[in-house]
Amino acid sequence: MAALKYSRQRESIKHYLMTTREHPTADAVYMHVKKDFPNISLGTVYRNLNLLTDIGEAIKISTPNGGDRFDGRIEPHNHFLCTKCGRLLDLDLDMHSIEEVNRLAAENFDGRITSSSTLFYGECSDCIKKS
Amino acid sequence: MAALKYSRQRESIKHYLMTTREHPTADAVYMHVKKDFPNISLGTVYRNLNLLTDIGEAIKISTPNGGDRFDGRIEPHNHFLCTKCGRLLDLDLDMHSIEEVNRLAAENFDGRITSSSTLFYGECSDCIKKS
DNA sequence: CTAATTACAGTAATCGTTATCGTTATTATT
DNA sequence: AATAATAACGATAACGATTACTGTAATTAG
User: Fold this and answer.
1) How far apart are CA B59 and CA B41, in angstroms?
2) Which of A63, A105, A123 sits opposite B120 (nearest CB)?
3) pLDDT over 90 (residue B90)
4) Which has the least CB within 10 A, A111, B26, B53, B103?
């Protein structure tokens, strides 16, 4: 039940997620779509971000500090968190590597592994330059 | 400055983290140490968990749902989150594999990678049995 | 075109976590 | 061992992120 019904707000949120290279927080998404929908509610943003995540059209990324980040790139990939400036960046391993990691993990694990996500830590190039 | 001063509460928290195989939330740690320190405060638990994390004697793990988890195992290792029951389990890859993943990642990434943590998703053996 | 239902905006509530503050425990000094 | 200095405590308030509620508006079905 509960058929999905079109909404311009959700479309706008999805479009932003799919076109930005940032990994925005819910609040950052809110700020952005506010330009097109000046009186959109933050609750609407959260509801739709979770909805998109549930139906597999977005990904939610949790990091050790700050709120969750959202990503419109749904194919398996990894992320890098700069421990200096806090920026979250994409970090791509080729598909074969990801599958290989999952396979290695499955070897000694008693359960079914369907996916994985690696979070790398370190210093981004910008922060290295500054120091 | 701010020399670290011994406290029985912190010792108890650390001992629990080091002996349990669970990956407890702050609240779960609180419930446990309450047995020995009936009027310990939740704030004290948080303060010490963060302190232990800061000085490298514990690890904080963020997952897409619920609060952060804490782990007294500080050597690099990975985790598995069961998407059915929500349990967080250890998942060990041998050290060589972890280093290999970091090396592969560094190859095409413009920055310095110091560590990584992979979160695997799937169904744990208990949940597979039940279905 | 009307009815049914989902989504909305606005707001209150909740949850996890951090900060504040006066008191207690630990450590350093005499 | 007594005292002084200071870090840690317990209690509670404050906070930020997220979710739940409610009456209204938009979308879809008949």
Assistant:
1) 21
2) A105
3) yes
4) B103
